[in-house]
# Entry
Amino acid sequence: MELPIKTDKPIIIPIKKIVQENSRVKSFYFNYPLAAQPGQFIMIWVPGEDEKPFGIIKQSKDNFLVSIAAIGPTTKKIHELKVGDRLGVRGAYGSFFTLPQKKGKIALIAGGYGMAPLAFLAQTAAEKGFQVDIILGARTKNELLKYSWLKNKKIKFFIATDDGSSGFKGFVPVLFQKYLEKNKPTYSYFVGPEIMELKLADICNQKEIPFQLSLERYMKCGFGICGQCSVDPTGWRMCVEGPVFDNQRLKKIIEFGKYKRDGSGKKIYL
# Structure
């Protein structure tokens, strides 16, 4: 029987394949005809544990994958699973990245695990004829998420590591500024720690480069009922109106780069 391509109730499906990407990140492949766009996310339910949102990393006609870092109890539990074990999946949800109408060079800037949701966009853009420059940063070369399958003559990597173990020694915003000395992307996209995103947004605004970013907030329901992931003062929910915003809509979110809220709703200043 053909599975539905989107559902608000968890569909229990087995893990088809597991790939160890680095010391903390594994990719999980599923046979499922998911209807998703780059930048969207799914909710993954671990029976007996919890349900968490994860970005879609890659999608084809009959399967998709997500990358998960072992950080908390739920993600560590997922890392213990084997091929054939089952997880609950619902979605896809949220807003998504859109490409410019005119083909040209675009810059994708990723910090830490931010490469995961941008990989889907990079693959899609390259297949549509865009030149994709990826500025990728991590603390050390062992934490870089380059994805062996993300190979296309229209994709080029620029690497930064905090310790200088690979590529430029320093932070991603500094490498992006150096990149702009010789390159003129028509559009930029970035995902990573919010302070990094704030610095990149400032650079793009100064250079008059339009951009889109993904904004992370604490999520519970994933489809707009609880309001947990709403931002000030618009009330936009990151699971419905977000998580992807362009530079014009971002100006209306006063908390961006300043604070976010934890699971209890308390402000956590950045």
Q: What stands out?
A: The chain has a mean pLDDT of 92. The longest strand covers residues 7-20. The chain has three domains: 7-93, 97-213, 215-270. Helices lie at 73-79, 115-127, 172-180, 194-207, 247-250.
